[in-house]
Every structure is written in C-alpha cells, then in structure tokens.
Design goal:
Helices cover about 45% and strands about 5% of the residues. The protein is mostly helical. The protein has a single domain, classed as Arc Repressor Mutant, subunit A. The protein has a two-stranded antiparallel sheet. α2 packs across α4. The protein is globular, with a radius of gyration of 13 Å.
Length: about 70
Amino acid sequence: MPTLLSRITINPKQCGGRPCIRGMRIRVADVLDLLATGLSNSEVLEELPDLEPEDIQAALIYAARKLNHVVLVG
C-alpha cells in the first residue's frame, strides 16, 4: 500500500495544495466525485484517460486513511 499512496502528491503551488494524482492536475476529490456519481472504475478511466487503475485505488486508500483518524474529546 505505501507504493500506491506514493501516487498521491501534494504541492502547495498546484490545485491549491489539494491532493492530486501523480503530480497531475487531477485531484483525489475529482476521482472520488466521479465514483460517487456512480461511474465504474472503467468509466472513470475513460473520463480521465491519463489515470491508471492504480490511481483509483490510491485515491480510495488515501480517502479512507484521511477519514480514519482518532478524534479526542476533552
């Protein structure tokens, strides 16, 4: 999985510092939005031809890890 997560890049000078795929201007959120609208992985790849199947996996893993954080209540 660390290899997949290396596909996610964050550059403060690109896309407002939002997580992107492999340094391209395709944001993780763009991939997730397409999946959320019901597109299949194949359809996402057609919609964003610069993506590779591993990029979709990386976006999903990244999102899952970001949401799975500990919240301390004081």
